Amino acid sequence: MRNVEIPFVKLHGLGNDWIAVAGSDLHFLRLRLAEKTGFQGAPSLDPKLPAFARAVCDRHTGLGADGLIIVIKPKGKNNDALVRFFNTDGSEAEMSGNGIRCAAAFMLVRAAQALAFAPPELAIEGALRLKVLHIETAAGVRRVESISAGGGKWSFRVGMGAPVLEPTRIPFRAGKVEPPIVKFPLRLAGGTMNVTVTSMGNPHCSVLVDDFDALEWESLGREIERNDLFPNRTNVEFVKVVSRKQIEVRFWERGVGVTQSSGTGSCAAAVACILNGVTGRKVRVDTVAGSLEVGWPKNGEATLTGPAELIAEGTYHYGA
């Protein structure tokens, strides 16, 4: 097979970098992109797609990124796009908080390019309509609101949905433990560690710590990700409480490893702190790359506010 030229946009959401492509530009793979696939531990419908994700995300022989975003036509007529997220290892993620902001920015970049050739009245109408995007994901439809934009930088507020607390829906093999799963004694090679288990559309295990340097959190993250109680593996957050309004987090992401930040991970960390009674319901989450704002009103959905930034646009030469 000869090399295929694929237009791409590279963006990052607070240091979590993504390659975004339009599904229509992957037609040569003859993929059934709109069909639901399995997730961690379950094969996708077509092995060519995980292979493409691994190739484009490789930091030496590809473009290099934490993940791949594919944007395609939505199933619902009132929605703007359907988005699929793939990790560096080719596995598929149900949802990404940083990724969905980058997906929204990608859509706005493409819309701006299209509107540049439209009549003025259509350009204005399109720009207003794209203030709020409704994006389909495997975790459900997410509302993404553009708060500010300029110079290849955006700020978005994302409706992340209500946290999932029931063990069977996370999924988590907790036995007869009643939700929420707080201070669960998780058995590890070095002993037992109390964890809080939730889902933001994808599974999360949050560990409250006093000092990041006092434990080998990267090794623990690798071990917890593949713990037998998580049938689909899990994302892991190590959370240090600074105050009732501020936390600091380190992330081990399923299928990726250490990342500078995580959107769903920040939400899960904040939810874990709220469930443990150590913070209020609106929290600033400090990551290695900067800060995100997470809110979780009682009986409501969580919201995530943070940036997305354009890194590059170009053509990827892919040889299968």
Question: How is this structure best described in words?
Answer:
With 320 residues, this protein is α+β, with helices and mostly antiparallel strands. The chain folds into two domains: 4-161 and 308-318, Diaminopimelate Epimerase, Chain A, domain 1 (Roll); 167-300, Diaminopimelate Epimerase, Chain A, domain 1. Helix content is 19%, strand content 41%. It is built from five helices and 17 strands. Strands 1-2-3-4-6-7-8-17 form an eight-stranded mixed barrel. The longest helix is centred in the first third of the chain and has 19 residues, at 97-115. The protein is globular, with a radius of gyration of 19 Å. The termini are close together. 43% of the residues are buried. Mean pLDDT is 90; it is low at 37-44.
Q: Write down the overall geometry.
A: globular
| Stretches with pLDDT under 50, minimum 5 residues | 37-44
What is the count of distinct domains?
Answer: 2
**Estimated helix fraction:** 10-25%
CATH topology of the largest domain: Diaminopimelate Epimerase, Chain A, domain 1
Give the class-level CATH name of the largest domain.
Answer: Alpha Beta
CATH superfamily of the largest domain, by name, is: Diaminopimelate Epimerase, Chain A, domain 1
Instruction: Report, as a whole number of angstroms, the end-to-end distance.
Output: 7 Å
Strand portion = 35-45%
Strand order of the largest sheet: 1-2-3-4-6-7-8-17
Q: pLDDT average, as an integer?
A: 90
Judged by helices, strands and strand pairing, the structural class is alpha+beta
What's the gyration radius in Å?
A: 19 Å
- Number of helical regions: 5
CATH architecture of the largest domain: Roll
Largest pleated sheet: 8 strands, mixed, barrel
- E-strand count: 17
Q: What is the N-to-C order of secondary-structure elements (H for helix, E for strand)?
A: EEHEEEHHEEEEEEHEEEHEEE
